[in-house]
From TrEMBL:
Record protein name field: Transmembrane protein 267
Keyword Lipid biosynthesis recorded: no
Membrane topology of the entry: Multi-pass membrane protein
CC terms in the record's Gene Ontology section: membrane
Source organism superkingdom: Eukaryota
Main location: membrane
Species this chain originates from: Exaiptasia diaphana
Residues that span the membrane, as ranges: 35-55, 189-206
Localization, UniProt: Membrane
Amino acid sequence: MVICLTRFLQRLSAYIWRALFSMWDAIAYCCRKTMFIFQYIFLGLLCIGIDYLVFRHFVKKNDYIRALLDNFGHGLIAAVSWLVVSGIRRESVIQAVCCAAMSSGLDIDHFVMAKSLKIKDANSLHTRPPLHTTTIVPILTPILQVWCGQNIHCLQELPYMFVVAVLSHHLRDAQRRGLWFWPVGSTPPLPYGIYIICVILLPMVVKDARAGIKRLSSGHSEQLPAANNGILTAPEGV
């Protein structure tokens, strides 16, 4: 009787622990999924919040405040987008700041093309400045990937940061003027909902592309030593 009771208690204890571990795994899984979804929702809400501030009446009346807030919005959206791509780590935070600087820095071509430091002149251009053409992404990204990403260790993330910085900036501008694909032309202005969806999808696409390219690179680097060994090692009897 005592032996049966002991076995029953052991089995019951095992079932309870198994149930607790399963429950913990389920909670952890739900938390991961919630955080995964929340980061994209937060990015979309951030875009809406910044646009709400930029188009407030007291901001629209002052060109300098509006320009500063709009430029800050470009940088903040790029930084958060990069953190979604790479996760929150010390290196990622530094990279996010650099990504924000790149995105905000794109607006400098307004002043260069206007040949003036006045906000009014920079906003009164008859044509769009060169850094605002989305064509630079497919042109410069492979160059950055080959020259920097593969040869300079500290710049391995630069191609992906460049894509996030430029496209997040261009997508935000596209709600007013569309995307400019030189020399083909510009798309119609993006509806606001499409703009928000595109900004949310951007880090998701870049994250998947980044992971895929790294897998290909690691697989290629593992195959090279094996191939070299096959070439250098002569068969016995030769």
